[in-house]
Amino acid sequence: MARLGYVVPIALFVSSVAAQATSTTTSATTSPPLVQQAYNYVPNKAAAGIFAALYGIVTLIIFLRLFATRAWWGLCLPIGSAVMTAGFCIRIALSTYQNSMAIFLPEQLFIILSPAAFLAFNYILYGRFVLTCADRRHSLIKPERTARYFVLSDVFTFIIQGAGGSMLISTNSNTAKVGLYVILAGLGLQTLSLAFYMLLVYHAYSSLKRDGIKPFAQPWGMILKILFFTSALLLLRCTYRTVEFGQGLGHGYLATHEVFFYVLDSLPLLIGVSTYAIYWPTQYLLPSPANTPSEEMSTVIPQYNV
């Protein structure tokens, strides 16, 4: 859900581009294609193909691990990775069919929305880690409700950005400018939400250390390392998207140079997802003697067995 907020501004931007394309009296042969107007560059077909292949391989590995361990609670991760793979496959076609709205919009939505599944996986994993390996007293909030709270936070920021997006299409320049600031505020709140989640993980780590436990030396210590590492990569990507939008929807320096899309967006996400392909969490979710899965957690997330 964390990336839902980008749907409204992108949809509005695509609509404005389409409107400009249909209202212009310039012939189709001389006017720039849709992709050129949106990006100011033509997507590199080879780069898109490489990332489509890499994401596809990682998706297959994660699906195999998930089915082998029957960890159905983590199904959102390979689904999100599969959607990302589809987005890059569509991006390959976009480099050829540069004026196709039917290709441009799905490519944008698939690539932008799929990380929401990665975030959801981290939220769920944190709750399972605390209840299975540590103890609920080490968490600032109830671990079985972590995913619910953060998803609701994402929905709230989506509503804010939706309100700002509706203001963007105003014919009044002042109203449109306010709309841009409202969207940026929503994006900023999304980034803060993810930063708070990382603080939540760090608090659990510090609380365990105060009890004389060396978290990274425990059999389940890899879970904390993974959560820190992947969340940092997601925060990098979230910050990049916020700055990109702040520079101007589709016209800023970051948005018009494809290298930043791969270095600050696609690559960090690929590294994060690949981490789970290598270190699948179920092998580290080992219950401590004093901890067993709670009845509430089993109700919220069925089939709690890891």
Jot down its keywords.
306 residues; mainly alpha; 11 helices; disordered C terminus
The gist of it:
This protein has 306 residues and is mostly helical. 69% of the residues lie in helices and 0% in strands.
Low-confidence stretches: 1-5, 16-28, 292-306
Number of helices: 11
User: What is the percentage of strand-forming residues?
Assistant: under 5%
Give the proportion of residues in helices.
Answer: 55-70%
Distance between the termini: 25 Å
Mean pLDDT across all amino acids: 82
Largest sheet: none
SS-based class: mainly alpha
User: From the alpha-carbon coordinates, what is the Rg to the nearest angstrom?
Assistant: 21 Å
Please write the string of helix (H) and strand (E) elements.
HHHHHHHHHHH
Tell me how many strands there are: 0
Query: Which term fits the overall shape?
Result: globular
Topology, pairings included?
Blueprint (H helix, E strand, L loop, with lengths): L6 H17 L10 H6 L5 H25 L6 H19 L6 H13 L1 H18 L13 H23 L4 H38 L10 H26 L11 H21 L16 H6 L6
Helix pairs in contact: 1-5, 3-4, 3-10, 4-5, 4-6, 6-7, 6-9, 7-8, 8-9, 9-10
Structure description:
The protein is mainly α and 306 residues long. Helix content is 69%, strand content 0%. The chain is built from eleven helices and no strands. Mean pLDDT is 82; it is low at 1-5, 16-28 and 292-306.
